[in-house]
Amino acid sequence: MIKSSLAALLALALTSTAVLAQDGPAPLRIVTSFDIESMNPSEDGFWMQEFGVAELLMKFERDGTNQPWLLESLDAVDDTTWVARIRPEVTFQNGKPVNADTVLAAINRALATSDSAKGSVPEGAVFEKTGDHEITIRTAAPWPELPGILSNESVFLIYDAEAVDAVGEDWAALVGAGIYTGPYQVAALNGDQLQTTRYDDYWRGEPALPGVTVSFVSDPNARILAVQNNEADIALYPPIAARAVVDATPGIHFNSGTPSTGGFLGFMNIKEAPFDDVRVRQALLKAVDYDELANTVFGGALEQARSLYNASFPWAVENYETDPAAAAALLDDAGWVLDGDLRKKDGEPLTINLIIYPQQPDLVPLSGALQAQLRKLGIVVNIQSVDDVYAALVGGAPGWDLGISSEGTVSWGVTSPFLNRYLTTASSRNFVGYDNPEVQELVAELKVTVDTARRDAILERIQTILVDEDPYVFAMTIHKGRIVVNDLYAGQQPSFALYHVSWETKPSPAQ
Hints:
The chain is of the alpha+beta class. Among the domains are: 38-164, D-Maltodextrin-Binding Protein, domain 2 (3-Layer(aba) Sandwich); 259-480, Dipeptide-binding Protein, domain 3 (Roll), CATH 3.10.105.10. It has helices spanning 6-16, 41-44, 46-50, 100-113, 115-120, 146-149, 161-166, 220-228, 243-247, 278-287, 290-297, 324-333, 363-375, 389-393, 416-423, 437-448, 452-469, and strands at residues 28-32, 55-56, 58-60, 66-68, 71-78, 81-86, 126-131, 134-138, 157-158, 184-189, 193-198, 211-216, 234-236, 252-268, 303-304, 337-339, 342-345, 348-349, 351-356, 380-385, 402-408, 473-486. Helix 10 (278-287) runs antiparallel to helix 12. The longest helix is centred in the last third of the chain and has 18 residues, at 452-469. The protein has 17 helices and 22 strands. The strands form five sheets. Strands 1, 10, 11, 12, 13, 14, 15, 19, 20, 21 and 22 form an eleven-stranded mixed beta sheet that branches. A four-stranded antiparallel beta sheet has the order 5-6-8-7, with helices on one face. Strands 16-17-18 form a three-stranded antiparallel beta sheet. 45% of the residues are buried. It is 29% helix and 24% strand. A hairpin with a 2-residue loop joins strand 16 (337-339) and strand 17 (342-345). Residues 1-21 form the signal peptide. Residues 67-424 form the Solute-binding protein family domain.
């Protein structure tokens, strides 16, 4: 049950500040739009790694790599064998050691109870203990995406499976049970708030804070008001539209982070005119002013799209360019010539029906700006908001030409899921039956290719095809994390990949 009551938040915030009579910083107070319903690790445990309670075997980093976290190392012995070595110094918060036995217990429990885990592991994969702190993973076919799978918060969260099984389904009994490994352990959880306290024996050292309080407030304005009124330090997921008001309000700050793993993507209906002509699709890519969208329309709160991917990823090809003259030449070549201030063909104006959806209010200014940009080239854009964008896009039904959706192109460092879901012929999210034979072959090869250089080359080639040869999907902007903070946390940057709290999180140095 998601809470929107600011009064409830304020009452709980006052309760949480009762522990402030101590040296050092006070507990960090966060307000978020999502609630944590229970201590059931199979259904709600993924929230715990976001707020410093739980940890994973691997961690997805800003440069697109997956690095050891609870693991000391993860090595590919050959194409079908991986060896994972667990850090020997790690314990659960209840004092039990983290070793091959306890990690395997967590993995096996996830495979038995979690649909995400079941769907992420290839058939026939075997996890076996090969040392006190060593697990070997063997598969029938290469599994190059294992590092990303071990970084995914919804797959193999590490917890004390024996302690979880002991409570049956009395999930409330896990409060205070210390089943995770992170710097903060759960002290209380109810429908309004998660409260955690410092785990003094944390394996990396002493956590910087005495605890963290996370309150569940669905109303974005109420979250910002909580920071403004000093009932919270950090508000997650503020709307971009609030930035101007926040910037004008003393004592609070709208902080944008580094580019993330997705963005606002455009999907073209290649089965219907005008986008059945590849030249018109190529022209659209050159007609979009990506810099204006990110830096003027959204004031830098979104990143300029230079590629389908975050430009910091090693496989990203920065091949987006704004070139109205080249776009006009492509349209002329396709027979869409200017007649006055409109482009026409056989007397009919070049018209694009664009669909957006109300669940993403940022699409209103984005689509309006795109409409204005294309109008300069003589293209008319009609904008329609639909309640279910996927239902409208599936099958390439007549009535839409361009759809915009917020999508992740990388999942915890794994690129295949997006490509399989949106570009392969058998997928339900391949809205119009996009079927480029080379892309199909490359996506299939990527799934079983271990060599990093070859994987990067595959991804680079797919991006080239999607811009220069056979466009279908493209990024209009790249998302950035964003938070609203008070003066105490003015230097805090939004998390990357949902790691909102670490053992080092603390108030900003005095300015």
